[in-house]
């Protein structure tokens, strides 16, 4: 492929990606265009090639190849145990592949970076269960997410700069929680907590957002808003969404990847993959 092997994870220094976006005032207030600050010359933000992960000889990922375009909104579907979560673990550095290539942009080798380095380089992950600080207000949660050093609780009491405040207001507006800014996060509905957590990710201006089953447990209205939100975020960010809810997948994704037994079984529009014989076999069980 386009990237040749190197002993360093970084071939050339990246510009601090999206660390100074407090003043951005673009259409939806979500920071820079996707891919900026990263070397994504070929329009690919994520390249996975021949990725394998073994657990005691069992191959959770098996020579997986996957490419995500800059600004793309990709849905990953597949039966339980297909390797979807393991895939996210590999991208975020939580699990190391036994072999294969994983590049973020053209120059960052994810297999050589720590989880912290990967997060700092611009990959944000949302787990299924929201992990907001329940005793803090919605506003404070976002404020804390903006901080690089999360241990500095005292900084909550320090005065916020105008730009930081504007940025928080923008994100509050994006996730439709402006009216609840001063409420303790613990009082939010399950769906609102999910939105807050997405907002906390956005405070870090990630290039690539990984979302594992984001609409599980949401009401229909919340699911609809999530679809709208993701469509707005795409283009500015690249999104990889693992989801079982086919109605939701159909409403957001123009490109779907079906995983099965650790490999890509099919790729295309939802309609295309739903007509694929092998996909039908896997979902209906032969
Ligand atoms: N830490 C682990 N140790 C052993 N097996 C694992 C581990 N993590 C995942 N697996 C196995 O790998 C396969 C893929 O799991 P997972 O990525 O969680 O699938 P999915 O998210 O698509 O349901 C499953 O068979 C699972 O049991
Ligand atoms: Mg999973």
Automatic annotation (TrEMBL):
It comes from the Bacteria. The keyword ATP-binding applies. GO terms for molecular function: ATP binding; ATP hydrolysis activity. One of its GO terms (cellular component) is plasma membrane. Keywords: ATP-binding, Nucleotide-binding, Transport. InterPro entries: ABC_AA/LPS_Transport, ABC_transporter-like_ATP-bd, ABC_transptr_urea_ATP-bd_UrtD, BCA_ABC_TP_C, P-loop_NTPase. Residues 46-286 form the ABC transporter domain. Pfam families: ABC_tran, BCA_ABC_TP_C. NCBIfam families: urea_trans_UrtD. This is Urea ABC transporter ATP-binding protein UrtD. It comes from Pseudomonas proteolytica.
